Amino acid sequence: FSIQQDYFADENRVLKKDPQQDYHLEYAMENSTHTILAFSRELHTCDTNDKSITESTVRVIWAYHYKDMGEAGQNYHGPNRGTKSLRLLNPEKEEVLSASLPYFDLTNKDVPVPDKDTTYWCQMFKIPVQHEKHHVTKVEPLIQKGHENLVHHILLYQCSSNLNDSVLDYGHECYHPNMPDSFLTCETVIFAWAIGGEGFTYPPHVGLSIGTAADPQFVLMEVHYDNPSYTEGLIDNSGLRLIYTPVLRKYDAGVIEAGLWVSLFHNIPPGMPEFVSEGHCTLECLEEALGAERPAGIHVFAVLLHAHLAGRAIRMRHFHNGEEQKLLAYDDEFDFNFQEFQYLKEERIILPGDNLITECHYSTVDRIRMTWVRKVLM
């Protein structure tokens, strides 16, 4: 391992040794099946050949050859290569052992996915935990094997408690003129998952409340199917697993949505290398929405930035008393296939009368038709 060094690739993808060596090997080990290397470097090296590491998504590329590098240089990796999107500075989740905790699943049953680009499918469920308060501590996606690129995102809405079990009998395409009237009672988002994300673990002092009269009795699960190849005959059984505990946490969790709502007035022209749209959660909006939270406001502990294929960067800006605060969350290297919650290093307080601006950067340079924005940003 004495020849481990700092390299970079030029515009022709040729690998070259970097004159400024910023790569530091911490340790290495090897057995008959694995080679493990641990290395470190500064987040900002002031080296033009290095990419700064920020809170944005980082696309890590890797390649290897079965032979060690010789004096003549590296061996060509052939097919032994790949890429993975990561958020290197996302704080580690404080994982609570959930193997022994009870759970329930909300999953679709043999949904026929239409052979069209985009489908939103809605199914009503009844929360099985009732009559006593519990806290959901973790939510895991249950994506049918082979459908990892078909299921784009899943939203869970709280519905009216005045419904009866007859609403559970069928699912239907969302936002359709013939969808059941009961779907219109489901307005409050209580959880969201998007493509590429893993399970979401709530902080140790927070949980999603279920089981009381004020908690969700009926929920609507909205699944967005992305089928750009118009594949026929797809049947899906994806959904969510909710893990819960009777040991209550100090605070109840909720969701606040901000961004650009579905609107025919929001569209993006073709051929644009950059196009910026803003969604404003105004002073008046937060004054009304957070009125019941006076004077403490709400504490934000995680943010999910959500966009579609044209999305390139997203920034959530926060203003208090007219002064802009540190960005609540951002991703300047947005990856459509890697959308997971950003856990904040420190909880941020949002007060009635604050402002939130969701800044969305798009690129349509490779498109010849107008792009219509179809879904809200979380």
UniProtKB/TrEMBL annotation:
<keyword id="KW-0479">Metal-binding</keyword>
<dbReference type="GO" id="GO:0006589">
    <property type="term" value="P:octopamine biosynthetic process"/>
</dbReference>
<keyword id="KW-0732">Signal</keyword>
<keyword id="KW-0186">Copper</keyword>
<feature type="domain" description="DOMON">
    <location>
        <begin position="1"/>
        <end position="65"/>
    </location>
</feature>
<dbReference type="GO" id="GO:0004500">
    <property type="term" value="F:dopamine beta-monooxygenase activity"/>
</dbReference>
<dbReference type="InterPro" id="IPR005018">
    <property type="entry name" value="DOMON_domain"/>
</dbReference>
<dbReference type="GO" id="GO:0042420">
    <property type="term" value="P:dopamine catabolic process"/>
</dbReference>
<dbReference type="InterPro" id="IPR045266">
    <property type="entry name" value="DOH_DOMON"/>
</dbReference>
<dbReference type="GO" id="GO:0042421">
    <property type="term" value="P:norepinephrine biosynthetic process"/>
</dbReference>
<dbReference type="GO" id="GO:0030667">
    <property type="term" value="C:secretory granule membrane"/>
</dbReference>
<dbReference type="InterPro" id="IPR024548">
    <property type="entry name" value="Cu2_monoox_C"/>
</dbReference>
<keyword id="KW-0812">Transmembrane</keyword>
<dbReference type="GO" id="GO:0005789">
    <property type="term" value="C:endoplasmic reticulum membrane"/>
</dbReference>
<dbReference type="GO" id="GO:0005615">
    <property type="term" value="C:extracellular space"/>
</dbReference>
<dbReference type="InterPro" id="IPR008977">
    <property type="entry name" value="PHM/PNGase_F_dom_sf"/>
</dbReference>
<keyword id="KW-1015">Disulfide bond</keyword>
<dbReference type="Pfam" id="PF03351">
    <property type="entry name" value="DOMON"/>
</dbReference>
<dbReference type="GO" id="GO:0005507">
    <property type="term" value="F:copper ion binding"/>
</dbReference>
<keyword id="KW-0256">Endoplasmic reticulum</keyword>
<keyword id="KW-0325">Glycoprotein</keyword>
<dbReference type="Pfam" id="PF01082">
    <property type="entry name" value="Cu2_monooxygen"/>
</dbReference>
<dbReference type="InterPro" id="IPR000323">
    <property type="entry name" value="Cu2_ascorb_mOase_N"/>
</dbReference>
<keyword id="KW-0503">Monooxygenase</keyword>
<dbReference type="Pfam" id="PF03712">
    <property type="entry name" value="Cu2_monoox_C"/>
</dbReference>
<comment type="similarity">
    <text>Belongs to the copper type II ascorbate-dependent monooxygenase family.</text>
</comment>
<dbReference type="InterPro" id="IPR014784">
    <property type="entry name" value="Cu2_ascorb_mOase-like_C"/>
</dbReference>
<keyword id="KW-0560">Oxidoreductase</keyword>
<dbReference type="InterPro" id="IPR028460">
    <property type="entry name" value="Tbh/DBH"/>
</dbReference>
<keyword id="KW-1133">Transmembrane helix</keyword>
<dbReference type="InterPro" id="IPR000945">
    <property type="entry name" value="DBH-like"/>
</dbReference>
<dbReference type="InterPro" id="IPR036939">
    <property type="entry name" value="Cu2_ascorb_mOase_N_sf"/>
</dbReference>
<keyword id="KW-0472">Membrane</keyword>
<protein>
    <submittedName>
        <fullName>MOXD1 protein</fullName>
    </submittedName>
</protein>
